[in-house]
Amino acid sequence: MLGSDMVLPGSLVKNPRFDYVALGHIHKPQDLNEGGQPPVIYPGSIERVDFGEAADDRYFIIADVTHGNTKVEWRKLKEARRFIDRRVVIGSSENVTENLKDALPKPKEIEGAIIRLTVEYPREYDSLIDESALRKYAEEAFEFHLVKRPQMEARIRLPADQTISSMSPLDLLDQYWRAAKIEDADTLQKLAQEIISTDE
Fold first, then answer.
1. Is the dihedral of CA 68, 71, 74, 75 positive or negative?
2. Distance between CA atoms of 99 and 59, rounded to whole angstroms?
3. Lowest mean pLDDT: which of 33-47, 81-95, 150-164, 168-182?
4. Which is the most buried residue in 40, 123, 127, 177, by most CB within 10 A?
5. How far apart are the C-alpha atoms of 115 and 83, rounded to whole Å?
6. 48 burial type by CB count under 10 A (0-12 exposed, 13-18 middle, 19+ buried)
7. How far is CA 47 from CA 31, 51, 121, 122, in A?
8. Using CA atoms in the order 32, 83, 120, 185, what is the torsion angle rounded to 10 degrees?
9. Looking at residue 164, what is its pLDDT?
10. Would you say residue 120 has pLDDT above 90?
11. DSSP alpha helices (H): ranges in 104-184?
């Protein structure tokens, strides 16, 4: 992200004069010369670093380095830090915080993990989410991220005595600005009036 990575030609790192080539920075474990000599190894990182790696296995390498016959053993790490990603859509105002706790793993499974809980909900339910209770529940986690995504009701409500067909395009547009809570709605309405008048 800070500049261009150095790029080495494959022929350079696969040169048979080398007995073993150890590469770094790339997180995905791989042998770029699989089945050949020398092994050209990215062992990967020993910890997961973000949610994009949540399901990836982590390894380290034991290499028996001998000229022309290096043997590589991949050792899988059993205790790599867990990333747990949960998403909840709240559809009811009842027991909101308890329902969010139920969406999380049990406290024993939380210990040492990095957890992200993404919650989508109607904006008016915002005060029903007890963030401190959720953080208390997940206190054994290495880190807990609560991502709140309030949804705005954007449907247009017409008065009972009006129908869409009875309204002009400008009236409908004005209804939309108000329902969507658009800033500068009056300015936009004036611009729309000018455009429609010019077109007519």
1. negative
2. 36
3. 150-164
4. 40
5. 6
6. buried
7. 19, 12, 33, 37
8. -50
9. 75
10. yes
11. 107-110, 131-137, 169-179
Residues 126-161 pLDDT 10s: 899 999 999 999 999 999 999 999 886 656 666 666
pLDDT at 55: 84
Residue ranges of alpha helices (H) inside 84-130 are 96-103, 107-110
Q: Which H or E run contains 120?
A: strand 114-122
Terminal-to-terminal C-alpha distance of the chain:
52
Asked if 81 and 54 touch (Cβ cutoff 8 Å), the reply is no
Angle between helical axes of 169-179 and 185-199 (0-180°, round to 10):
160
User: pLDDT higher for 8 or 136?
Assistant: 136
